Amino acid sequence: MLLEEIIKEIAICRACDIWEHYKINVPPEGNWTARLMFVGRDPGREEIEQGRPFVGQAGRKLDALLKSLGIDRKAVFISNLVKCRPLNNIAPPFARAKFCADRFLKREIEVVSPKVIVCLGAEAARYLTGQVGVMSRIRGSVYKYGEIPVIPTWHPSYLVRLEKMDPEAYADRAWEMYYDVEKALNMADEE
Ligand code: URA
After folding, report:
1. 54 in ligand 1 pocket by Cβ < 6 Å?
2. Is 156 in the pocket of ligand 1 (CB under 6 A)?
3. Which residue, 1, 75, 171, 174, has most beta carbons within 10 Å?
4. Host domain of residue 30
5. Which atom of ligand 1 is least distant from the CA of 124?
């Protein structure tokens, strides 16, 4: 399957009414032969403006984390369950997110065939691991999507919010996310 085909299909997808609201789809980006893949939920305002995933506040958090681990953003693959921005940024029901992920993310994973996937937040974790538990319980554990190890961790948007609300808790969660991604990186290098 041609990778460009998936990107083209995303660009013209009108399969559900989420697209109606913003009329811009955000394709995944990064290295199509990456060992490490990150999956979030759906694009936010800045992502829609730029047509790129994780380029807003959450993306800057993710970039900083990658940098602190010596990972170049261009070396990994970054995607979302949903390719359009939901109206008022309200999380789409899981069935809707799954509908989109089944259409695109699933095929992206087949093509990229990463060594390890990091789920950013509960929705991606639910889709890829079937776990619906709270993130504090499932984060850092290794699940499987087919044969691919999957590690859920905090969503960077949550860290952005927490930093302002509760700096102490933020420091703990930020370290946890660091350890989770470091673990994924080490596993990806070993596989
Ligand atoms: N949050 C996500 O889950 N994905 C993005 O692309 C941006 C913010």
Report:
1. yes
2. no
3. 174
4. 3-190
5. 3
CATH number of the domain residue 39 falls in:
3.40.470.10
pTM of the model: 0.96
State how many domains the chain has: 1
How wide is the angle at C-alpha 125 spanned by C-alphas 73 and 36, nearest 5°? 30
Given pLDDT bands bounded at 50, 70 and 90, which one contains residue 112?
Answer: very high
How many A from CA of 44 to the centre of ligand 1?
A: 6
Task: Confirm or reject: Cβ of 55 under 6 Å from ligand 1.
Answer: no
Is pLDDT above 80 for 102?
Answer: yes
